[in-house]
Amino acid sequence: MTETSNFTVVMTPHMKDLASQFDNPPEKPKFIPKPEEVQELIELSLIYPVTEIPAHSKYLFRYTKHQIQEIYKSILNGEIEIPKSKSKINKKEFSLEEDFIILTFIRLQPGSNISNLIEMYGELFPIYRKNSEIKKRYNELKKLPNDKVSEILDKYTREIAYEDLFGTSTQKASEDSTIKDIKFIQCRCNYQPVIYDQLSSKASDELDRLDKISEIYWQREFSPNDLAILRSEKLKFFMRREAIMIGRGTLDFDVDVNLSEFGERACVHVSRNQAVISFLLDFNFYITNIGNRTFRVNGVVIGPGKKCRLHDEYLLDFSGILLIFYSNRQLIDQIKVALDDSMENQNKREAN
Q1: Is position 201 within any domain?
Q2: Helices 96-108 and 131-142, packing angle to 10 deg
Q3: Are 317 and 259 in the same domain?
Q4: Which one of 61, 62, 64, 74 is CB 3.0 to 4.6 Å from 203, fit for a cystine?
Q5: What are the CA-CA distances from residue 126 to residues 87, 95, 115, 116, 133 (Å)?
């Protein structure tokens, strides 16, 4: 595995003899954020996971997830000065877990007041949550009708059940047991993702702008014999045959697109032989699920044995490992012309 520019090119076994060409990779670029970006990063880190910050930010939407993490590490290490600011953190709605804590207190301590709630369970709330906000939410929940309370509790129960099933499904014993229900072992893909917050309008505008120029940029990435490319934020996998295997590589088992490159814990829901991307005679690309786990293509669940057609900019989601697909249109057009000429010559010979 070698680094070029901001990306890492993953080399399959037949490319390993080229590793000597990359003995001295260029240094990684250092990101020097502006004071307002540092301040916003600190504030948003109290509300969102670091990896989700760019989508909710006014200044940081231009940075990648990796860049945000590097800046955050520099702040923690004292390499970046923390600016003084009087800006206020945007209010965050109460989560199901917070509502459950308050509702449980109301049910078990009906005669108590809000001060008892804060004294007994205050440490369970996020550090950015003010006592006045907890008091306001306490009064709101206390006035809710029983059906609304039941709705909140049902949502929280389902969330806990999904988390428990997911934890169980990551254990090898669950696959070796007599329980072979697909919905059980693949519960991570069983329900549709929920977007709790609106994305930044500036981030959406930036994505639209980049979308218009992405095809031009990625066509330059292809070598003459590259049929397609799968890329993440840091890794690139090239397709140079009519079919490639996606899966979880091990020391004694090689695959073309090794999802273990994203970390050991990143692919607990990926089979060794998970999927095959094929370039067929209709000049289109197809992905087939040959594993016993599900994955998503543009948000649509692809179960074991299922197949779907791939188009440029389709997003493949292997249990949180995201890869975007691009095809080399120039090479495909050349193949079409060559095949048409071959068929035409063959027809002429048969006619004669």
Answers
A1: no
A2: 70
A3: yes
A4: 61
A5: 19, 10, 17, 18, 12
Structural domain count, the chain: 2
- In percent, the amount of the chain with pLDDT more than 90 equals 11
Structural tokens at position 15: 């490319």
Shared-domain flag, residues 236 and 330: yes
Residue reference for tokens 């993440």 = 232
Between the CA atoms of 119, 121, 124 and 125, what dihedral angle is there, to the nearest 10 degrees? -70
The CATH number for 247's domain is 2.60.200.20
Report helix, strand or coil for 23: coil
Question: Which tokens in the block code for residue 72?
Answer: 């955050």
Amino acid of residue 19: A
Domain that holds residue 124: 96-189
Q: Residue 346: its pLDDT value, please?
A: 77
Amino acid at 48: Y
Question: Sign of the CA dihedral 156, 162, 165, 170?
Answer: negative
**For residues 325 and 49, which has the higher predicted lDDT (pLDDT)?**
325
How many C-beta neighbours within 10 Å does residue 71 have? Answer: 23
CB 194 within 8 A of CB 95: no
Does residue 128 share a domain with residue 10? no
97-123 pLDDT tens trace: 899 999 988 888 877 788 888 888 777
Contact 40, 68 (CB under 8 A): no
As a whole number of angstroms, the distance between CA 93 and CA 104 comes to 19
Least confident of 40-54, 255-269, 331-345: 255-269
Domain membership of residue 50 (yes or no) is: no
Beta strands 257-258 and 243-247 are parallel
So what's the pLDDT on residue 16?
A: 45
Contact 200, 55 (CB under 8 A): yes
174 found inside a domain: yes
